[in-house]
Automatic annotation (TrEMBL), chains A, B:
InterPro entries for this protein: FAD-bd_oxidored_4_C, FAD-bd_PCMH, FAD-bd_PCMH-like_sf, FAD-bd_PCMH_sub2, FAD-linked_Oxase-like_C, Oxid_FAD_bind_N, Vanillyl_alc_oxidase_C-sub2
EC number: 1.1.2.4
Principal subcellular localization: mitochondrion
Xref: Gene3D superfamilies: 3.30.465.10, 3.30.70.2740, Vanillyl-alcohol Oxidase, Chain A, domain 4
Lineage: superkingdom: Eukaryota
Cofactor(s) named in the record: FAD
Record's subcellular location: Mitochondrion
GO molecular function: D-lactate dehydrogenase (cytochrome) activity; D-lactate dehydrogenase (NAD+) activity; FAD binding
Taxonomic path: Eukaryota, Metazoa, Chordata, Craniata, Vertebrata
Domain annotation FAD-binding PCMH-type: ranges: 64-245
Source organism of the structure: Cyprinus carpio carpio
Similarity remark: Belongs to the FAD-binding oxidoreductase/transferase type 4 family.
Keyword line: FAD, Flavoprotein, Mitochondrion, Oxidoreductase, Transit peptide
Protein name from the UniProt record: Probable D-lactate dehydrogenase, mitochondrial
């Protein structure tokens, strides 16, 4: 009974309020009718208005405050997603897709309330084609889940953002991570998507069931939805490229006297055509944190962690070339490992970076920035950023996918200290603008979400924003898909997003 | 004087006619005013209405009939392209971008007349960043031109469709070719585009001057324009990824008893992680044609041509793994070469395939089909296609980028024989539908152009066509950019493409 009253309290404002401007509207129906319609599609257990469930679906792993939806639905199939979307469309209710909640820019926050589509019950791995190196997954399937499923096939999906994220969520945010330098990001590894549009239409971006490795047929809808962060539709299936598991993997670590020498080594390793799969940079602060967290004794200097993928015989040569390049650039303490256990130990330091950073200030929270610049600009931006961190008394060890020019400050802050929060906010904006001034981007892999809406406009310019808004209006004229994100890219509300009540 | 009269004759219908429905409109100005406006932007030598120039710009290398524009303009800068586009937009004149005219699906045909933007005078290589592995080029720069420019840098641009095409044109058609199995297609290798939209707006798809290797910032406009075939805007600059020239390249050739065994070898080579850069299939008819054309003596059976890129030391191992795989699949006559001269001789057979096919029937024309299927379906589709060719008495040797599942029939036909033209037309449609029935695409790299408009609808389905039309309407509401191509994707004219006169 308490739950029921609570449900009514939380949902009473839902169907009476315009999903866009939050003013009352006489056009929409009653609470009961909407909830009942949802339940007729997904059953009682497929609809939740409980506060704990809603709060759980209003936040990701970032420091953005929780913005819970009014209702959470748990569809079990694309047909249910489509039917639920049609109800939302009819009642003009915002729709926010939710995978695993491992995003880092607040992309799942229900800024305008509305309905969260939690997709975890759609968890089938479908249509594995081993000979064709492709597989289709539902949105409840995670990266580790897929690789576990593939264990005995000799294949794997290499894109690795660190978190065990939903693969469809990774597509939605154009995720990448440590392996991108060799295998690319989600942009290069999604062959087809099934998407439910705002009005419930089911779209197959490359045509239903199609999975050629390349195509020139019509506009590239697949890559329009990859990185669209739920603002154009709900991804309900992704067809992905797979790769043969390399015969051999060798890892190495090397210390450098300066950021410049580590980056110079990176450029030369890439130019030499070494079969590098990961090339990760950790600054002295990060290495120090890793040493303390994992009881290690790496030299506290800029450091590269590397991984080579290829045939057993070629590994020795790859390692030799790399060692020679690093030595020529002043690198030292070069150590490499082939067996899985030693490799695992070596990479543990890198994988634990987030927790190592957190351990620097127990009780605090971590926030990861995410900029990407042309590789040659890395030394300057990292040096300037480190000076900025020191000047503003911010704890922010640096780790980065240096082969792509992408790096993160893992900022550890006390969220209850408004002064520190403000200093961190100002720092992250300065960092993003520094990247923009160096021909780079304010986000290499985390997405725009809530945190970078203003920065996007600075990055791409007004013409590109206008084009993006036009595309959004074309696909979602009522602005129901994850609203508040795209509209936040402009300071004014464009006319095509205004509903009748919004124009008052 | 003759030229002037001729000009008037050719252009007299131009500014008085609606660019979409070809009916007269009182809204637009006079001949003299439009031509004069063009000349005020690009000078007398930058505007041509001569019939030879117009005809040269109304065709590509396909068998589609020439559809000349009314005027050809030769802008020298993005500012000129923008100013010319504004004039066209004001007068509602169709605009068709033209690079080198090496397309294969009639994409440059001026179906509705209008203004051809020949971009050959914009031929600068701009902003080479060696350390960052990127370069920006204008649309007059060709693939070979860029690689010649890069000769002393240790870098190259590997996407190789065969023709010496304009790089911006390659972006517009999402081209690829022999190296795609290792280096990807244009989709994976364009970092940023400068585009002039229908109303003259200059758009930078990833923001002006930006060139990070990856980004998650907003919608992926770059890959919306890659493959848009001039229907959304005119590409005036492309920022491209470059690669280090591999230390060593080794080529090999191997004969097989069947298509199946050649394809099985391909799958196993890919799965073994061999550093393969090209893996090209030629059927028995193609090999026979090559033997005759180049005075060679390859066994007349299905054949693979391969190329490995990597370090010198690793080459021996790569070749050994490959030789073992091919031998296990019944391959024979395995021959490999490392020195440039022998490699050149070996690849000459593959590169001359087009001319070797043409030489089978002197005086005839060649037409290249272009389908792509998941690799496992290649044996079946190739066998069925060969039976179809024989049954219908069509000369069509097969060559393909088998690592991507992409192949071509190089059909040689007499264009003056209507019965043969009809047989070839029916054959190509059957071939495309065979690819569609096997989860594939009707075009892997040539694009939709004129030839495959109906097939695209079958491939992606009505929902995707509606979305594509919506995107087109959003970016080019007057349907002025290369008109007749996108609109041809539907049988009816959607309302948002109708101009005032079209609605009569």
């Amino acid at each position: 009974m308490i739950l029921f009253r609570q449900a009514l309290r939380f949902t009473s404002r839902l169907p009476f309020i315009c999903g866009r401007c939050r003013t009352y509207s006489a056009q929409v129906g009653s609470v009961e009718r909407v909830i009942s319609a949802f339940r007729s599609v997904s059953g009682d257990e497929g609809v939740s208005v409980g506060s704990a469930v809603r709060e759980q679906h209003g936040r990701d792993e970032s420091v953005h405050i929780c913005r819970p939806p009014d209702v959470v639905v748990f569809p079990r199939s694309v047909e249910e997603v489509s039917a639920l979307a049609k109800i939302c469309h009819h009642h003009q209710l915002p729709m926010i897709p939710f995978g695993t909640g491992t995003g880092l820019e607040g992309g799942v926050g229900a800024l305008k309330g509305g309905v969260c589509f939690s997709l975890r019950k759609m968890e089938q791995v479908l249509d594995l084609h081993q000979e064709d190196f492709d597989v289709t997954v539902e949105p409840g399937v995670t990266r580790k889940g897929l690789n576990s499923y593939l264990r005995d096939t000799g294949l794997w999906f290499p894109v690795d953002p660190g978190a065990d994220a939903s693969l469809c969520g990774m597509a939605a945010t154009s995720a990448s991570g440590t392996n991108a330098v060799r295998y690319g990001t989600m942009r290069e590894n999604v062959l087809n998507l099934e998407v439910v549009l705002a009005d419930g239409t089911v779209l197959h971006t490359a045509g239903k069931g199609r999975r050629p490795r390349k195509t020139s047929a019509g506009y590239n809808l697949t890559n329009l939805f990859v990185g669209s962060e739920g603002t154009l539709g709900i991804i309900t299936k992704a067809t992905l490229r797979l790769y043969g598991i390399p015969e051999s993997m060798v890892s190495a670590v090397c210390s450098f006297p300066s950021v410049q020498s580590a980056v110079d080594s990176t450029v030369q390793i890439l130019q030499a055509g070494v079969s590098i799969a990961r090339i990760e940079f950790l600054d002295d602060v990060m290495i120090n944190a890793c040493n303390r967290f994992n009881n290690l004794s790496y030299a506290v200097t800029p450091t590269l962690f590397l991984e080579f993928h290829g045939s057993s015989k070629s590994m020795q040569e790859q390692v030799s070339i790399t060692e020679e390049i690093t030595r020529d650039n002043g690198g030292s303490d070069f150590a490499w490992a082939e067996d899985e256990e030693t490799r695992g130990r070596l990479w543990k330091a890198r994988h634990d970076a987030w927790y190592a950073a957190l351990a620097l200030r127990p009780g605090c929270k971590a926030y990861s920035t995410d900029v990407c610049v042309p590789i040659s600009r890395l030394p300057q931006i990292i040096v300037e950023t480190k000076e900025d961190l020191i000047r503003n008394n911010i704890t922010g060890p640096i780790a980065g996918h240096v082969g792509d020019g992408n790096f993160h400050c893992l900022i550890v802050l006390d969220p209850n200290d408004p002064d520190e929060v403000q200093r961190v906010h100002s720092f992250t904006e300065r960092l993003a603008r520094r990247a923009l001034a160096m021909d780079g981007t304010c986000t290499g892999e985390h997405g725009i979400g809530l945190g970078k809406r203003a920065l996007l406009r600075e990055e791409v310019g007004p013409s590109a924003i206008e084009v993006m808004l036009g595309l959004k209006a074309s696909l979602d004229p009522k602005n129901l898909m994850n609203p508040g994100k795209v509209k936040g890219w402009v300071s004014r509300v464009p006319s095509h997003f205004r509903s009748p009540c919004c124009t008052r």
